[in-house]
Design a protein that fits this description.
Elements: E1 5-7, E2 10-12, E3 26-29, E4 34-37, E5 43-47, E6 57-66, E7 69-71, E8 78-79, E9 86-92, E10 95-102, E11 109-118, E12 125-135, E13 143-148, E14 154-161, E15 182-188, E16 192-198, E17 201-206, E18 209-211, E19 216-226, H1 232-240, H2 244-260, H3 274-290, E20 307-308, H4 309-321, H5 326-342, E21 348-349, E22 357-358, H6 384-399, H7 402-406, H8 409-425, E23 458-460, H9 461-480, E24 488-489, E25 495-496, H10 498-513, E26 514-515, E27 525-526, E28 529-531, H11 543-551, H12 561-570, E29 591-592, H13 595-605, H14 611-620, E30 633-634, H15 647-660
Antiparallel strand pairs: 1-2, 3-4, 4-5, 6-7, 6-12, 8-9, 9-10, 10-11, 11-19, 12-17, 12-18, 13-14, 14-15, 15-19, 16-17, 20-21, 21-22, 23-28, 24-25, 26-27, 29-30
Helix pairs in contact: 3-15, 4-6, 4-15, 5-6, 5-8, 6-8, 6-9, 8-9, 9-10, 9-11, 11-12, 11-13, 13-14, 13-15
């Protein structure tokens, strides 16, 4: 059921129903600043400027004082259809409070528009808005103070993250140094009645307003995030000039324009299943929100607040499947710039600065490596450079914009050449990347025979598949440049006949990883790795990696084997739980957030009617969260882990749903 409401003279789009009871968190963001909270309207996260920034707060709660009595509000927040705007309402006696959370792209502030309506036909009420802002513990190192306006009157609260803190995975993470003092200013767009602090909580109260019968009042609770460019009094002046109604209208209009620009063949009303449509629409808003203004994609702002290459690829796949292409072009420029700054394609990059790039071979990555040293280049050459190249491939296919691809030629050439360097030297084989999601430890892969601490022990089927897809695209691209792929000189000075290399890679893919000796799968399938020590197959399956080549659109020598791979995986589907375990061994039914998306996409591709069961599981199972996005992984009972609002898993799943519903056709 949807509800449509008014915000003053502005009509709000209908509310989208909650899709699940889990995942009590949503986000609004501008690509520079971001914040969010739960279904009750209480915020628990604010970060910026720029997305690689730790959270400032523990809690922000809006309350109302009516005739001298303070009341808590359960706002029952929902997303407004066709937007990334969220709003909710609460009624206390004759007073209704509506709060709208929205943001416009590129702005450095977020405002919560608050409307108070007196529903009485005869009685006036005196009201004021009271905000409780609870800080993260003192151990966080975030400094706090009251902020004065130009007349020296306390008018807001300012929080500061200094350069002794860290901006990735929390203020004390020791990973990514905070590159500058950053400030969060919280204030109303009118002079307050009072501001005071009780223990770890600031209280901001607006001036009392007398509402006549049928009267209303609106106010904005603004959050300006900035560096040291202006004094706080100037930002308070900016906040005082805000119009809550105009802010809401601008955010709604921006989102509706973005959705409409996709074109009629991508119209979401082609999805006739309302729940699936809501999932896709909600997921699109999360992926779009997760893209920074400089073009990168965070995995999720709350924890993994850097621009991750693998997440970007799958998030962009979801956007492209729904008709949004500009984001891919922006990402190519972002990554090309990072390559020019760092000399490699990062696994993850800082957003807003070039101060840190997470490279699997970078000693700064040591804290996550249990063996105490950095990964060698052989573990950095696979996956990440390939996925960057596949963004270029998919963008070119969608737009025909060859000029944009030529503009990033240097980073594409590096990405191809670093893969070739190791693949050819190893007899057309590659190791695993140090950070592939299927193997990252979110669900343990030890029962299948994979120990992520020792990447050098394995030949990877998925890494080789991505190399094949990269090279096929690169050869086609070189031809468009009028370059000869049969006498190609790499950046390392090696001369290749790329057509011959491609054939050798495809031959090795079949020779090394196609197996027919498993009695459970007599038709044969591609296994996910070989152990270097004795060239044996692993002792267990990791089902996503068998599907991996086909989701990433790899062309192989034996196209008929794709259906065998898909068939070999679907038997592990648990119909009663509507899940696909990642490592289907006895007693471990945990799964990743994109498992079903991979399988659904592949089943649609091979026209297997089993797709209906997987579609139902993806749409009506336990994975889709309250607002339409997906988590990194889930326990066997569907309980999600903390990596929420994820670009990667969300992108895969809506790509699969768009394919199922034939969007774009």
């Amino acid at each position: 059921m949807t509800v449509e409401n008014k915000f003053g003279m502005l009509s709000l789009p209908p509310q989208v129903q909650h899709l699940n009871s889990r995942d009590d968190f949503y986000l609004v963001g501008t690509g520079l600043v971001v914040a969010g909270g739960g279904a009750d309207g209480k915020w628990g996260f604010i970060a910026g400027p720029h997305y690689t920034c730790s959270n400032y707060i523990e809690r922000e709660e809006i309350r109302i004082i009516i005739d001298g009595q303070e009341h808590a509000l359960d706002l029952k927040m929902h997303r407004a259809r066709g937007t990334g705007v969220y709003y909710g309402m609460a009624t206390v006696g004759e007073i209704t409070v509506t709060v709208v959370d929205g943001a416009c792209r590129g702005e450095t502030y977020l405002s919560r528009a608050v409307l108070v309506d007196n529903n009485s036909a005869s009685k006036e009420h005196i009201i004021s808005i009271k905000t409780h802002l609870t800080l993260i513990s003192a151990e966080s190192g975030i400094k706090d103070a009251c902020a004065d306006d130009s007349d020296g009157v306390a008018s807001g609260v300012v929080l500061c993250q200094g350069t002794t803190l860290f901006s990735f995975q929390g203020t004390q993470s020791k990973w990514v140094p905070n590159w500058a003092d950053r400030f969060l200013l919280v204030a109303y767009n009118e002079a307050p009645e009072t501001i005071y602090k009780v223990k770890n909580t600031y209280v901001l109260q607006s001036k009392p307003k007398r509402l006549s019968a049928g009267g209303s009042h609106h106010i904005a609770l603004a959050h300006y995030l900035h560096y040291t460019d202006l004094p706080e009094s100037d930002y308070i002046g900016k906040i005082r000039s805000m119009d809550a109604l105009k802010n809401v209208a601008a955010s709604i209009d921006e989102w509706q324009t973005w959705f409409n620009n996709a074109g009629s063949v991508y119209a979401l009303d082609k999805i006739k299943d309302q729940r699936a449509r809501d999932i896709v629409e909600g997921s699109l808003t999360i992926i779009k929100t997760n893209q920074t203004v400089d073009g990168g994609f965070v995995s999720d702002e709350i924890w993994a607040d850097m621009a991750w290459t693998r997440d970007a690829y799958c998030g962009l796949r979801g956007l492209l499947a729904c008709g949004h292409t500009q984001e891919s072009g922006d990402y190519l420029n972002f990554m090309h710039h990072k390559y020019m700054m760092h000399g490699f394609i990062p696994n993850a990059s800082s957003c807003g600065r070039d101060t840190f790039a997470l490279y699997n071979g970078n000693p700064a990555n040591t804290p996550r490596r249990q063996w105490g040293g950095a990964c060698p280049e052989a573990n950095s050459a696979p996956e990440t450079p390939a996925l960057y190249m596949l963004v270029a491939r998919d963008y070119l296919a969608a737009t025909g914009d060859l000029a944009a691809i030529k503009a990033v030629h240097g980073s594409l050439q590096y990405s191809m050449d670093v893969q070739l360097k190791h693949a050819v030297a190893n007899g057309y084989r590659l190791e695993f990347s140090g950070d592939e999601t299927e193997l990252c430890g979110a669900v343990t892969t030890l029962p299948a025979g994979y120990d992520y601490r020792y990447l050098e022990n394995y030949w990877s089927m998925s890494s080789l598949a991505l190399c094949i897809a990269s090279l096929e695209f690169y050869i086609d691209y070189l031809k468009k440049r009028n370059d000869n792929p049969e006498s190609y000189i790499s950046i390392y000075g090696t001369v290749y006949n790329l057509n011959s290399v491609l054939e050798n890679l495809k031959e090795t893919f079949e020779k090394d990883f196609w197996r027919t000796d498993n009695a459970e799968q007599p038709q044969g399938y591609h296994e996910w790795c070989r152990l270097k020590a004795d060239n044996s197959f692993p002792k267990g399956r990791i089902v996503n990696l068998t599907l991996f080549p086909w989701y990433y659109r790899v062309n192989v020598k034996h196209a008929e084997r794709v259906a065998c791979d898909v068939d070999s995986v679907k038997g592990y589907f648990l119909a009663d739980k509507k899940t696909l375990p990642l490592v289907p061994v006895l007693g471990d039914n945990r799964y990743l957030g994109h498992d079903l998306g991979y399988l659904l996409w592949c089943l649609v591709q091979v026209k297997d009617p089993f797709k209906e069961k997987i579609y139902d599981a993806l749409v009506n199972g336990t994975s889709a969260q309250r607002w339409g996005s997906f988590n990194e992984c889930y326990d066997a009972d569907g309980k999600p882990n903390a990596h929420n609002l994820r670009t990667f898993e969300t992108g895969v799943n809506i790509d699969a749903l768009a394919k199922y519903w034939k969007l774009g056709l």
